[in-house]
Amino acid sequence: MIITNFKNLAKNSFREKALLIVEAGYEAIDIGKSVKERIGVKNNILTIRHFEKENPYQIDLKNFKRVFVVGIGKGSVLASMSLAKILSKRLTDGITLDIQKPKLKIENYKLKIFQGTHPLPSKQNIKATQEIIKLAKSLNKKDLLITFICGGGSALACSSEKELRNSILATKELTKTGANITELNTVRKHLSEFKGGGLAKMAYPATVVSLIISDVCGNELSSVASGPTVFDKTTKKDAENILKKYFPHKSVFLSALVRDLRETPKDDKYFKAVKNILFVCNQDAVMAMIKKAEKLGFSVKIYSLALEGEAKNIFSSMIEKIKPREAIIAAGETTVTMNSELGIKSYKKGGRNQEAVLGAINNKQSAINNNLAIISFASDAHDNTEAAGAIGDYSTIKKAKKLKLNMEEFLKNYNSFNFFKKTGDLIYAKQKYFNVADLMVVLRK
Questions:
Q1: Ordered structural domains, the chain, with CATH
Q2: What pTM, to 2 d.p., does this model score?
Q3: What is the pLDDT of residues 132-182, one digit of tens each?
Q4: What residues contact residue 12 under an 8 Å CB cut-off, 6+ apart?
Q5: Which secondary structure element, helix H or strand E, spans residue 236, and what is its range?
């Protein structure tokens, strides 16, 4: 099973069905399986079957003297290793920067594997990013660079001490104020020489094929990992306006960041030999979940593929609208807005998926009963904790009452992990799946 504690969570057949829908979603974004099924080489023609599967992309490897692979972001190391196996002797060299190192033997893959930190960068990230920059700047017109650009790359790719300092400051402050991921990435692009098309500029004049795994709402490619190979339409002024929006009063913090903002590459020549491909996104998982739900006898509605909003309130409308024998499925990225008055020491442990489920079962207006099951989970199985997410239903509420757990108090302290740990409703899953943001299911008998 993909969900490692499946048996403990499947307390009844209804819960089991909800969890099987989740497993189908995970199966569709399995990293190794996706790369193996969608990428192949025959007679030196590299074929990439991407999200728009009816139009595969092909490139003749005989046109290049050297072929390199670079992976950036969550899951990029497994993806790069899978591609290295397909390219075999055609691969010259490669580098990956991920949050984890694989347990597999890596000696035969011609890849340098770097492990960085997330959600905040560190000196480890600088060392790895500098290696990627060195490789990119060494390329010439007869070289092919294939990249996997995955979610989490905005934090992982960090090119200098100055960017490290500014990125940590911007991430911490903007996250606390409730800025969305697009706004945060706009600022991070303009604090970096690598993001916002920076890698494409460094690799020029080589040919670049960038396989992008979207974890952002609407699949805006320039926002995934802050778009290192994508032309950036935002400007330095846009980044400055975002900072001023959330910090209207001039401060040392604001002045320091505004001073270090830079413009991203705007010359079209850097992008003429770049092909950016949406390789995997949340729709891959959602379509598989729909198919499974229908097979289990439910009619299905897609609520949204670009769901945004405050996590604890996100399920309210779905619960109100759901009909008998129906599954409502959604995907997106919610926000947890911290109460700055509490102080950071008051924040406990949790993730936006766990917060979303806790908010749903705590909502008195939703009136959760025996007929409903609610799940929210991180597609990469890491919801800011070792848990992937949580499942909530009437049995969760009964268990909380029995244990005298105050749901409101757990929400107030951003302590959803420990709430669901006590009720036994945390979801744990194997971590070998692409990060396509968050996935949600509401199921009704």
A1: 6-28+283-444 (3.40.1480.10), 52-280 (3.40.50.10180)
A2: 0.92
A3: 999 999 999 999 999 999 999 999 999 999 999 999 999 988 887 878 888
A4: none
A5: helix 236-246
